Amino acid sequence: xxxxxxxxxxxxxxxxxxxxxxxxxxxxxxxxxxxxxxxxxxxxxxxxxxxxxxxxxxxxxxxxxxxxxxxxxxxxxxxxxxxxxxxxxxxxxxxxxxxxxxxxxxxxxxxxxxxxxxxxxxxxxxxxxxxxxxxxxxxxxxxxxxxxxxxxxxxxxxxxxxxxxxxxxxxxxxxxxxxxxxxxxxxxxxxxxxxxxxxxxxxxxxxxxxxxxxxxxxxxxxxxxxxxxxxxxxxxxxxxxxxxxxxxxxx
Length: 251
Prior knowledge:
Layout: H1 5-36, E1 40-41, H2 44-57, E2 62-66, H3 73-82, H4 84-89, H5 101-104, H6 108-116, H7 128-143, E3 148-149, H8 169-177, E4 182-190, E5 205-213, H9 221-250
Parallel strand pairs: 1-5, 2-3, 2-4
Antiparallel strand pairs: 4-5
């Protein structure tokens, strides 16, 4: 998991530049979500109270693994769990992200913005060696106390439900490679989100729930990583089933 010294230094510089701009870009992003787009998080106080209790009670490495329906899911998850000013004072919980290169980093201005906001662009379905380099960077930052978001599915769900056949095994690889790393499974869904989309509908309210656990497997190597990925996805399916059961109960 060791990275070249130059890569480690570049990640350090990227992290600290993000910290310097944090007081600007985190509140700005959340202003866009909450004021311009008029999004709301349901039961947000209880949700953040649970998350902050988790933060206080654990010193384990954490990888955040949400479901994926829109292009702003990572921002919504971060906002839902942290809140703007809490995140400013708890920088390690502002997660690293792996945005699709073509969506967020193919133009120089967006590439700079991504770099300054703890993003490491990745080409989905790209060459294995390049994908491996990106995952090693995430392994490095998570093993040193930061957190990161990796979506459980390889892309936005085309059915609106978690699809086990599209599970991203990279999340299992990262959790497997870091001693005692735990997966924070986050289920996020807008009340008016039936299927995948670029953006949630303006004025939507979001249901958010999470569970944290450490996957287990008697296998080793890639089989162990795949086992971890499947267990994380299974836990998200349970959270999804819970969401739809609650929807039926209140219908």
